[in-house]
Design brief:
- With about 375 residues, the protein is of the alpha+beta class.
- It has four domains: about 80 residues, Arc Repressor Mutant, subunit A (Orthogonal Bundle); about 55 residues, no CATH class; about 110 residues; about 100 residues.
- Helix content is about 40%, strand content about 20%.
- It is built from 13 helices and 14 strands.
- Strands 9-6-5-4-10 form a five-stranded antiparallel beta sheet. The chain has a four-stranded antiparallel beta sheet with strand order 12-13-11-14.
- The chain starts with 6 loop residues before the first helix and ends with a helix.
Length: about 375
């Protein structure tokens, strides 16, 4: 590999050396020896490696000052030593204020507490600990040995319920995230959980993880849906499960032109004004459509004394409030939300420790569900 083609590598390694020298500066000969040692370790074949001369290091120092604008301090005259003014200075992150630099270091140190091979494998894959290790080398050079030790440990310091890398549908994440960022219409081949296949256009808005599965919410150009009652309803959006996708791609310009001929604006990405986090997901549990999309219900559930202790510390929904305390020590609690399938599942999971008091239509729906469940066990 010709020496001239390795200027970028030399600058990177010299940059690391100068940061390490912030406490113990080196002279040009020491810098040259150490730089040659690190270059040789990076070489594909050490037998073909040719050492660089001190004058090359001198040229590199001048180039780094001129091109990257870094401050390289010179200490003394005879046998002068060189270093950065501090261990944070680098050609890779010029322009950060001391406050911003401090925030970066604090954030990386916090991240160390959560590093494990299961949860952060996508960050630590690659030689030398991957992209995360490279960040530590750039921003916390003095702690490289300690951070590498933590990155290489197989034992996790913090355990999660599940590994996000194993969620179904992960292979479609990149294309969906890019489409959301670029407001691009997608064409999907999709198979529902019941096995029904279809192909449709989709305008993706937001990704949401729930119950170990990825979902995407977006605009449906054909929004009329048939309910069990037989009536048609127009939802403002639809959601899809990423693991149900068979194929996915962005529409090309020719396809967009054809759609605009059939119906005006069909070639345009329809943007959303929905407040997903603070509004849409804030008034429901899970991801499924509410039973009554245009209505937020005042729901009351009565809990036994035993179950109330649990509900008070881990309520069904954040709108939880205590409504009435009864003589038998049971407690009626109130919620304000949009009931859906996930809410119904949570209520049924209460068994005989809690039941819906109101509204009547929801109470009847839960009753019918429980009766249907009982019939299954009787057959």
């Amino acid at each position: 590999m010709p020496r001239i083609r390795n200027a970028s590598l030399r600058h990177t390694l010299l940059d690391q050396l100068l940061r390490e020298c912030a406490q113990n500066p080196m002279n040009k000969e020491e810098l040259t020896d150490e730089l040659n040692h690190r270059l040789e370790q990076k070489w594909e074949s050490t037998s073909e490696f040719t050492s660089i001369a001190t004058r090359t290091v001198e040229e590199d120092l001048r180039t780094m000052r001129k091109i990257y604008g870094v401050t390289i301090e010179v200490h003394g005259r005879r046998n002068a030593t060189y270093s950065y003014p501090d261990s944070f200075t680098s050609i890779h992150h010029q322009g950060l204020t001391p406050e911003a630099a401090s925030d970066v270091r604090k954030t990386l140190r916090k991240l160390l507490r959560f590093v494990s091979h299961d949860q952060f494998q996508f960050l630590t894959n690659g030689m030398g600990g991957g992209s995360l290790a490279n960040l530590f080398r750039l921003f916390i050079p003095g702690e490289e040995n300690r951070t590498m030790h933590l990155l290489e440990q197989a034992k996790a310091h913090v355990l999660f319920d599940s590994n996000i890398e194993e969620y179904p549908g992960n292979k479609w994440l990149d294309v969906v995230v890019e489409a959301i960022a670029e407001s691009r219409i997608l064409r999907l081949q999709y198979r529902t959980f019941s096995g029904k296949s279809s192909e449709f256009d989709f305008h993706p808005y937001i990704l949401k993880q729930y119950n170990n599965r990825w979902y995407c919410f977006g605009h449906d150009p054909e929004p009329l849906k048939k309910l069990q009652s037989g009536s048609l309803i127009a939802f403002e959006y639809k959601h899809i499960a990423l693991d149900r996708i068979i194929k996915i791609r962005g529409l090309n310009s020719e396809e967009l032109r054809e759609r605009s001929k059939l119906r005006p604006r069909q070639d345009e990405f329809i943007k959303s004004n929905i407040d997903w986090e603070g509004g849409e997901f804030n008034r429901r549990i899970g991801v499924s459509q509410p039973f009554r999309p245009d209505e937020v219900s005042d729901i009351k559930i009565k809990f036994t004394e035993r179950q109330f202790g649990y509900e008070r510390t881990k309520p069904l929904h954040h709108s939880f409030r205590i409504e009435t305390k009864h003589h038998d020590k049971s407690v009626t609690c109130a919620y304000k939300l949009q009931p859906n399938v996930e809410f119904l599942q949570r209520v049924c999971a209460l068994r005989d420790q809690g039941y819906v008091v109101s509204p009547p239509w929801l109470r009847e729906s839960v009753k019918q569900t429980i009766q249907s469940m009982a019939q299954r066990y009787e057959s």
